[in-house]
Specification:
Shape: elongated
Number of strands: 16
Low-confidence stretches: none
Radius of gyration: 21 Å
Distance between the termini: 46 Å
Order of helices and strands: HEEEEEEEEEEEEHEEEE
Number of domains: 2
Helix content: 10-25%
Number of helices: 2
Amino acid sequence: MSSTLKCYSRAQYVQDRVAGRMQSRGEEIILRAVSELAGPEPYRNPPDLSLSDLMVIAGSVTGGQAFIAISGTTVTGRLVPGDKLMVNSSLLTVMAMPPTVMTDGDGIPLTDIAGNPVFGTPTVTFTDTLSRDNGFPVVAVSGTTAPASLIGKRVIRTNYAADLAVYGYQLSRTKMWAMGWVELDSIGVMIAGKGVPAPQPKINDQLIFAGGDIRSIMSVGVQSLNGVNFSFQIQAR
């Protein structure tokens, strides 16, 4: 067996051991990869929205593609392909925006008087779904062949492609001080590295705990062996 294979096998062994220990002794945490577009309006994903009154206000099918429009009181940011919306009992998956949907100069899809998308040559093309005026004026979706039947129905749950379930535990305050993390309003968290793709986790990503507590990542340290990450030490607030 070559030395390279031996090193790789040892690194994988350590990664698996740490992952197993985290799963048995820690808790499930959602690691949310936050992304923004370049420009004056970042259109953050996952978006900031309230589910209390998020509702479908239009629905149509063109060329076999279903479209809906969503409105609420607090909606900013963008949806990306793979995000999911539970509307009533229908689980919808956000698709890439077709290049035939017309847009304005900001890349926001145009709609007709009924709230359905207008087709033609877009001014600016985005595959993601951008928000405007506390809503998503056009969302291409799969999971329904009758989107008009969803008009007036609430969006009751969202699942984002940016969310990854990981296992870890909070570090003691003594451990945090030893690492130089002295901010009183921050917490330290150790998570397993197995299954976490690059470049996660990064500053401004989020950790979401079982009780609903959401923390933004301030700094990240990595423990690795031969290029294989087996744990991340995260400071978040």
